[in-house]
Design goal:
The chain is an alpha/beta fold. The protein is built from 13 helices and 24 strands. Strands 5, 6, 8, 9, 11, 12, 14, 16, 17, 19, 21 and 23 form a 12-stranded mixed sheet that branches. The protein has a 10-stranded mixed sheet with strand order 4-3-7-10-13-15-18-20-22-24. Strands 1-2 form a two-stranded antiparallel ribbon.
């Protein structure tokens, strides 16, 4: 076995700041705290009613008894709402200095200036900055935080909120619907194609916190949008909980691409429900990177509801020491001539464990549909582990379904060859990893591909073989 010491400075991601919030709820979740959250947001009464119904469901729903061990989550030992500032800023100059410094260190303002159509930045429970460039605002594009959208666009929010991911879908979707705060609301009008990505960045700074952002994206007919989210948190001795819900609505012939690069610290449970509905001729793409957290359970889903709809899911998961990445996807074909492609890649190191958990369902109405699933796992040593749990339910004979899976280790001959060409052992391993993930990096904007390589190097820090 080859030993490596791949040292990368992690301070860019794991630092803490000393900003003090203007409001912090007591620990635990109750009707009183939910009402306080709603009051702080000045929400309409219908949203408070939704929250309270969801809270009742959360109390009754059982914890998942499969996948990641969630038995150590103490719901009564979490802060459910932390308000960092009075209101979101439309300019970085309006953001409190200490919070602004945090996002400056993460490179968010620079990214906005260079290559983004708009940016939202969430700190703790609230968006502290939101901005959309004039070019897109003039075309009717809406890019707001969810709290603002519930007030400014109530009919649109009412129409789609909880319709893609019902509050009773699972225990954590119920929890999010009861305690949600922050997240993005996007509406793209008919025929509008937003040529540059919109981005949101989520930051947990407090120990023992629950972050429950809610994102809703609606792409009207013949429109197009690319949304990118990034996530980080400092490391504490106490666990935190990130439970997001994402709902995508792709109306006829629209195109939504949703890209996630998550680098949570290893004291964060990352339990996320993400789902899309694709109408006739629509295309939904999930590009999903999971490189941090203590444990992750995330399975982006696309419901191909309209004829000719398509889904493309590309994901990577890196499970380092003490991590369990339980990821995958769900594709549900309900209409004829629909297509889906899933490519999942994982890397496991130390005692890390990566699992692919996938579901493909083809309804009896979905004739002439096509499905292709590829699962590849790379083990970096003898202690790491990879599992695959594919489920395929096919109720139509006139379809094409493919599934393939592979597990491999770093090849000693490849290492020897690269070293014989002048590379060090560290450089050779990094090159092999980069090549393995090349299909994923190619789908990212250039700046994000560079950042992905940095994050991979962070995860590879320390001894590996």
């Amino acid at each position: 076995m080859v030993k490596k010491n791949l040292y990368i400075n992690q301070n860019k991601y794991t630092f803490r700041d000393k900003h003090k919030s203007i409001f912090k709820s007591d620990k635990g979740l109750s009707k009183g705290i939910i009402k306080k959250i709603s009051q702080e947001k000045n929400e309409p009464a219908w949203m408070l009613n939704v929250r309270l119904r969801a809270y009742a469901i959360f109390l009754k729903k059982q914890m998942p008894d499969w996948g990641v061990d969630l038995s150590k989550i103490d719901f009564d030992d979490l802060y459910y709402y932390i308000k960092p500032t009075v209101q979101a800023g439309a300019s970085w100059d309006d953001v409190p200095k200490k919070i602004k410094n945090t996002f400056e260190r993460l490179g968010v303002p620079q990214a906005e200036r260079k290559f983004l159509a708009g940016v939202g930045a969430q700190y703790e429970s609230e968006m502290i900055y939101h901005n959309l460039k004039d070019k897109w605002a003039k075309q009717g594009v809406v890019f707001e935080d969810m709290s603002t959208a519930a007030i400014k666009y109530p009919e649109l929010v009412k129409k789609y909120f909880t319709k893609v991911v019902p509050m009773d879908d699972n225990k954590f979707s119920a929890l999010n619907t009861a305690a949600w705060s922050g997240g993005s609301f996007i509406y793209i009008p008919k025929g509008v194609k937003v040529e540059l990505p919109l981005q949101a960045y989520f930051r947990i700074n407090t120990a023992g916190m629950g972050q429950f952002e809610r994102t809703l994206i609606i792409a009207d007919e013949d429109s197009e949008v690319h949304y990118i989210e990034g996530c980080t948190a400092p490391t504490y001795s106490r666990d935190s909980l990130h439970t997001a819900v994402v709902e995508l609505v792709a109306l006829p012939n629209s195109h939504i691409r949703y890209t996630t690069i998550q680098n949570w610290s290893q004291n964060v449970y990352n339990l996320v429900t993400k789902r899309a509905v694709a109408e006739t001729g629509a295309l939904v793409e999930w590009v999903d990177g999971n490189l941090g957290s203590k444990s992750t359970m995330k399975y982006p889903c696309v419901i191909l509801k309209g004829e000719g709809a398509q889904a493309d899911v590309l994901s990577i998961a890196f499970a380092g020491d003490g991590q369990y990445q339980d990821t995958g996807c769900k594709i549900i074909h309900l209409a004829p001539n629909t297509k889906s492609k899933v490519v999942s890649k994982s890397i496991s190191k130390g005692n890390g464990r990566a699992s692919y958990r996938g579901l493909v369902m083809i309804d009896k109405r979905a004739k002439n549909s096509q499905v292709k699933v590829e699962c590849d796992a790379l083990l970096l040593d003898e202690e790491s582990r990879s599992d695959t749990y594919p489920v395929m339910k096919v109720d139509n004979d006139n379809v094409v379904v493919e599934h393939e899976a592979s597990v491999s280790k770093i090849n000693e001959e490849q290492l020897y060859y690269l070293q014989s060409r002048g590379l060090t052992q560290d450089e050779a391993v990094r090159l092999i990893i980069t090549g393995y993930l090349d299909i994923f990096a190619k789908e990212l904007p250039m700046e994000y591909a560079v950042e992905l390589n940095r994050l991979i190097e962070l995860e590879m820090e320390g001894n590996m073989g």
